[in-house]
Amino acid sequence: MNKPEKEITIYDIAKRLNISAATVSRGLKDRAGTNKDTKKRILDAALEMGYQSNSFASNLRNKRSNIIGVIVPKLNSVFMSQAIAGIEQEVSEANLTLIISQSLENVKKEIGCTEAMYSNRIDGLLVSLAYESKDTEHFERFTKRGTPVIFFDRISENKNFPGIHIDNFKAAYEVTTHLIQQGCKRILQATGNQLQNVYADRFNGYRKALTDNGLEYDPELIMETGLSPEDGINIAERILKLKNLPDGIFATNDQCAIACMQVLQNAGLKIPEDIAFAGFNNDPVTSIVKPNLTTVNYKGYEMGQIAAKLLIERLYSPEKQSPANVLLGHELVIRESSLRK
Q1: Which of 261, 244, 315, 262 is nearest to 69 (CA)?
Q2: What is the pLDDT of residues 156-200, one digit of tens each?
Q3: Using a CB cutoff of 8 Å and minimum separation of 24, what contacts does 283-286 make?
Q4: Is 4 among the domain residues?
């Protein structure tokens, strides 16, 4: 078995060139006062010998890891992959490293992710909360250490933590109002865990639209799920067992909406004639599925960029901090699945 190669140090370079280790250190860091010829000899020797700077030791001295942590519910959604791409763009431009973890919608897993991030002494943390997260106690340790934490999309109600989000109440109100304007009177909402303000706001927007348009709220028409495609299938099966079918369905996630819609179509129901459909997030598949799905568009990439910019700003320019919360715009994208008129 071959022995691992010895790591090259500045002392090895100094011995090769017959100069002091301090001179090698100054040359590698391009410090003023180092002779140009000497610096070139140092750099050439370092390259030839395979020297790598010990950034870990340097970071310890500077009390910085140059690592940004990201915790998201799941990596398998288009929105979240776009958000992470936006984060990565800003983080890489700042010469920082990104560590990504997923909570899998489980608060115990989320707590485990925070413990790992804390142990790695990250410089800052970006978080989109899991369904089950009720409080922010497991994030308090970061603020006590002086590590900034910023939430995006699924944000915290704790005002000590900045958040980047959209007006979910208004978006849900607009979707529900659109379905009502298309003649729907019995609208079902497939939604996520109401512990999350994202889904609580979308429920409240839905209910307010019903009230403002003189429609009665029916608890039977609220189905709380994990919003996965499998959940969409289960919702469709539950709908088919109802004595009085809905004439409109608003799913607060596109994947859930599409899976539900396809099962109902296979059962012989016509979309939108029998049941009008709307989703949320504007996943690319919404413009491919037949009929094309009405949905709410908001920019994951832009949200990720802004979240990362705020975090980096708090790291390097704490005196120039932006507002605690940023509200991004959204757009109702109306397509065939809801157009009954």
Answers
A1: 315
A2: 887 778 899 999 999 999 999 999 999 999 999 999 888 778 899
A3: 283/77, 283/78, 283/79, 283/254, 283/255, 284/78, 285/254, 285/255, 285/258, 286/254, 286/258, 286/333, 286/335
A4: no
Q: Domain check: are 237 and 315 in the same one?
A: no
Residues 176 and 292 in one domain: yes
Q: What is the pTM of this model?
A: 0.79
Nearest to 242 by CA among 266, 264, 226: 264
Which of 125, 153, 121, 157 is CA-nearest to residue 139?
A: 125
Verify that 100 and 153 share a domain, yes or no. yes
Q: What is the CATH number of the domain that holds 186?
A: 3.40.50.2300
Assigned domain for 1 exists: no
Same structural domain for residues 195 and 314? no
The structure tokens listed for 24 are 């090698």
- Give the span between the Cα atoms of 312 and 159, in whole angstroms: 19
- Mapping DSSP to helix (H, G, I), strand (E, B) and coil, where does residue 235 land? helix
Q: What is the largest CA-CA distance in the chain?
A: 90
